[in-house]
Amino acid sequence: MPILTLTTSIAITESKQEKIAKSLTTLTSQCLHKNKDVTMVNIVPDHGLWFGANGLVTDAVYQLSIFITAGTNTEKDIVSWLDETWQYLRKELDIADDSVCYTSVLNNDGTNWGFNGINQSTRNKT
């Protein structure tokens, strides 16, 4: 039951956003073994001004985060997902080799999050 948020420094067409959402859902299913039917992807394109060590960043960069239930993935799963999403987004968004893009895997305790009014701990018992 993951939710992903992709925030970018560049504008992205709606059709490209849909392609990216589908690809991230597939990679999440393959690498983290998450159910595609309950995976949500929120894309926030062209969001704010981005600054690095040399000031304003004018090239494409992004920040990707995913919320998952703690203890449901191995370190190997997570490392695979981090690499696969980087490789995909790097190509899809035409990210320069020297750009800095962050990806976070946020592990939530099963009692502290869920969807449609049921937390993950309860959902896993049914």
Automatic annotation (TrEMBL):
List, alphabetically, the InterPro entries matched.
Answer: Tautomerase/MIF_sf
Annotated protein name in UniProt: 4-oxalocrotonate tautomerase
Q: Which organism is it from?
A: Frischella perrara
GO: which molecular function terms?
isomerase activity
Per UniProt, the keywords (alphabetical) are: Isomerase
Instruction: Cite the Gene3D superfamilies for this sequence.
Output: Macrophage Migration Inhibitory Factor
